């Protein structure tokens, strides 16, 4: 995956004109799965009401979505390698739409098990999109600016993460009443989502993707292309890739737990109504959007790995403040957690793909599978939150410590 090479690193372009239309469409996908994932956090709280679930039980929402990443990661990578990026995107969008439409029979049956199946299929679609979209965006220009492109695209993922809670709070939490078991709003909302995603798939099928250069082709400037600097090594002998998978596991583990119980924290520690806490989640996701744009800019003057380590260290401090239940200072720290979290997913992904050449697509599958951390961690935080939701925020410190080590030391390509 390589674009036209340039003579010096200071002149590496963000992308090229021929890639612009493709870049716009692929970047839009980041927004759509951002909506879907954060909608799951609103569903978590909504299902606690209408299906009478405990916090631990409702964490199955995150388990179904993120668990799909573990199942679908390798098949999505193999499909992408065999049929190309565009068909990989179309497969992901099709599964996304199918999972959304399956909310209709799930709501009719009022079955959390059926909802879990629908969420799993939807998660398979999101997993496929993530597996394809990251190397796809990385390939649409010079490798030296791939961190900037992926962070830019992920900024629109953050925009989707703002839209998701806004929609969910308005349609699902606003009219919550004690003892209500009405799932009509859930059914209607996901019919609309499924219809929009199906329409995007149809539109994308007409987009002509420019030819991309073979990632392990010989080029004049190896630094500008995704060339395997150690072609004799197998994928798993690239240590920076292994550490990227580990870091991504803990990164999404922290994300899954933090987002799943944000509304609970606002309700239980700040005394907000569920709808008010849901509205604060919009600000929470807005700070992630701000962090992604700030991160894209800062990477022009600070090495991506160094910025990753700095932001991880800041989040360790934020978690310590959150766990103390200091009122507004702790809630502000909870909001800022998402600002510093912002660059982690795309930066870990990009650093893990550096100089892997022909291994790049397979590596993307395994880094996407690392997202399964988001399926595991909400259960652990849920069990802790049953006793005290603030104390549950000690657990992500483990995750941010691993990310700090990756950014400070283990990112290096050898």
From TrEMBL:
Q: Which stretches are transmembrane?
A: 19-39, 59-80, 87-108, 114-138, 150-173, 188-207, 241-265, 277-295, 307-326, 332-353, 365-385, 391-411
Q: Known PROSITE patterns for this protein?
A: MFS
Q: Where in the cell is it found?
A: Cell inner membrane
Q: How does it sit in the membrane?
A: Multi-pass membrane protein
Q: Name one GO molecular function term.
A: fucose:proton symporter activity
Concerning NCBIfam families, the annotation shows:
fucP (TIGR00885)
Q: Which PANTHER family match?
A: L-FUCOSE-PROTON SYMPORTER (PTHR43702), PROTEIN TSGA (PTHR43702:SF3)
State the name under which the record lists this protein: L-fucose transporter
Give the taxonomic lineage as stored in the record: Bacteria, Pseudomonadati, Bacteroidota, Cytophagia, Cytophagales
